[in-house]
Amino acid sequence: MGRAPCCDKNGIKKGPWTPEEDHKLMTYIQLHGPSNWRTLPKNAGLQRCGKSCRLRWTNYLRPDIKRGRFSFEEEETIIQLHSIMGNKWSAIAARLPGRTDNEIKNYWNTHIRKRLLRNGIDPVTHAPRLDLLDLSSILGSALCSPPLFNLSSLLGTQAILNPEMLRLATTLSSLKQENQEIFLQHLQDNQLLSSLVQNEVSLSQANQFQNPVQEPTSSPFLCPTQLMQTDVEGLSCQNSLQNLVPSSWNDCLVSKAPNFVSCNTNPTVPDKLAENSGFQPINNSCQNYSIESVLSTPLSSPAPLNSSSTFVNSSSTEDERESYCSSLFKFEIPEILDMNDFL
DNA sequence: AAACGCCGCAACCGCCGAGGT
DNA sequence: AACCTCGGCGGTTGCGGCGTT
């Protein structure tokens, strides 16, 4: 257990702040500055704990706090930063002048998160949800690299994953390791899926080929996810693929299944699903998005972080925002896959 | 008009890391 | 090294407002 709460003493008031308390706190801080929070309430004549005073000041009374509705740019920035940082609200708030971490956190949980969920986007991974998306995510991982294609992790997600999809993914992974070239050829010929379904290749048969620890470590090929994990200097996913992945992989990963392109620019988000899926939304951030451009923004800069946005109307409606969110995370089902059997 | 449920947000709680002793 | 204090963070709670029935 941690140490005892600082507010459990008798005489320490909790709950909503009154205008009188606010006035006392503001007056004291204006005179003395926010120095020692523990002694501040006593000196200011407040029946509050220092922690409560600090929160009240930082989240509400601070003069530089911006009130009111979040603008489109702010919302867009939050989404982008969240895709990079995860729930690091203070870090996100540091790049949104006038906004507090608490405010951003609340806004995320009450607005953005729900909107992403409505649009089929996992608000944690910023990827299409596994229970809604197609098989391409799994196939993409299977094609990429066995070390990243961790079936045991996938099995942990079976509650949300169609068992048939999981089974097929396992089979594909095994076959791929058995003979990568034949596998790719089959896939490129759009024959593998129907072949598998028709012949009902059993999981046990497939597993005899599976050997996840013997994959050559000196493979000259990098999975797109790996590319992006190391490609954090602002290079586009597309370029990375074209430059580093053999053309046959490009054909398979990009041309036939465009959303195989991995844009995982988030090395800090420990999301197994995202890693395993290798599936990220196709959006501006994939093609042009530079982490540097966001992270290098001065903390005090009031300028929007994504100047490329054409959505500058801060009074836009919820529907417009939702529509924008949808387009931001738009994805398509590859033509080579008939998902009807899996949904 | 009243009851009910939902939603948003301010505030609280528990935990952690840094720094001091 | 061990302990304590403090500031800070992220997750959660609970209340008030609002819309719906």
UniProtKB/TrEMBL annotation:
One Pfam family name is Myb_DNA-binding
Alphabetic keyword roster: DNA-binding, Nucleus, Repeat
Cite the HTH myb-type domain residue spans from the record: 9-61, 62-116
Q: Where in the cell is it found?
A: Nucleus
User: Which coarse location class describes where this protein primarily resides?
Assistant: nucleus
User: Which CDD domains has this protein been placed in?
Assistant: SANT
Annotated InterPro entries: Homeodomain-like_sf, Myb_dom, Myb_TF_plants, SANT/Myb
Myb-like domain location is 9-61, 62-112
According to the UniProt entry, where is the signal peptide?
none
Q: What is this protein called?
A: Uncharacterized protein
Q: Which organism is it from?
A: Hevea brasiliensis
